[in-house]
């Protein structure tokens, strides 16, 4: 350790801890009258938000929640979720954002593993919660959330209904200082193998992530995305990495915030129009649903900036959104990274290039943000050059990356092998510092001695005019090891077979963009592609389905 000069602080100097409460208190200094909106049911201003957070803190404290306890939330995206994201960690407890789209067995596992003591349950999830309540091992009390409906709840140790309790509570609460390294949030990954893993973040990490995101999205002129005049509506669930941390950023900056509840594409379009939304973020599949909504047909979405993450942003979707007035920008991160670590950036050289070149860089994972270090590593732990060609695993360092998995030290050690966070993504770094994600390590297709990127192949397949949605996976082949298999959803009134797809891909082979071995010899046209609980392509499920189809000689398989 380097021996440096450390001067002790002056007597009485305030040691400023980085706590989530600092983000909440910052918002009102910009625009006190800006609103927090929940569907068509409720709207209030920032001073009211602060009061409601204090009321909730009083409710939780009176119910017996103590510092260090874990409080679980089962709700759709709402003002209540925002209040919980502040009030629970601000009293020193930990908020567990439950992924309500997991199976009941997985939800039960995560709640017991996280040692939840107190649960807030939306009335829509009463059946789900009651089915597992008898097997919960640590929960002491529950609190009911409703939208003003009259549904009654038979919940164990029910404290009361959310709004009724808040109305009776004091609007004042003295939020004490404590160690900034205290855990503030936890949630569980949606991995495709084994049980979900508990990811956690401290107050310090979340404050630094919020500042980093504000800089990445608000200070890079070539893709300036977010400022104090924007109207924010998340289309990434709040249970998934705190809606990518953007509610914390939006509150810190005092933005108008619009929460849509349960996602319905038709209603999302209505909210966008009514509330004049200018900034959102989502995975590609959710955006496709919005663009395909009946309410979206013929609509010019000019002025709507959307960050795409969770899955690769392909050129076809970028161009389709652009034609509708939407500015898409790719960003990169994962559950364990807070999540944001990079965002598309066009430097002066790229800005002076062609529109095609600018698009190419707008859909890449982008340049690491301030305070983020990125490198490419081979299987032996050696660093590879940033030449845009050398492929290896993307590894990261930043002050807001999770430091492990809850109660799973061995898996945490694997995540941080060698002092770098291992993403599990195959990528390159180029001379511009741009990260280009080539694939998940587990999704790379190994055929005929070559590695084929399923993401690159999906991008090229998506450019066929008949294709609305595509997923490509590797399927075992006795001769080649693996062969690519494409699963397609086509636009209404269109058709495509394996031979038509081959003809579409041949020019990319001739231009050197694609290996001839990458052309799928089999495809399946389906009405829907399996997704995970957060809207990503579920490639594990897809592989299982394809094997079953092949075994049954399904008629919708098309073979060269």
TrEMBL record:
Q: Molecular function (GO) terms listed?
A: ligase activity, forming carbon-sulfur bonds
Instruction: Extract the InterPro entries matched here.
Output: AMP-bd_C, AMP-bd_C_sf, AMP-dep_synth/lig_dom, ANL_N_sf, ATP-dep_AMP-bd_enzyme
Entry keywords, A to Z: Ligase
Every copy of the AMP-dependent synthetase/ligase domain together lies at: 30-406
Question: Does this UniProt record's set of keywords contain Chaperone?
Answer: no
Superkingdom in the source lineage: Bacteria
- Every AMP-binding enzyme C-terminal domain range: 457-536
Q: Does the keyword Ligase apply?
A: yes
Its name, as the record gives it, is Fatty acid--CoA ligase
Q: What is the lineage of its organism?
A: Bacteria, Pseudomonadati, Pseudomonadota, Gammaproteobacteria, Pseudomonadales
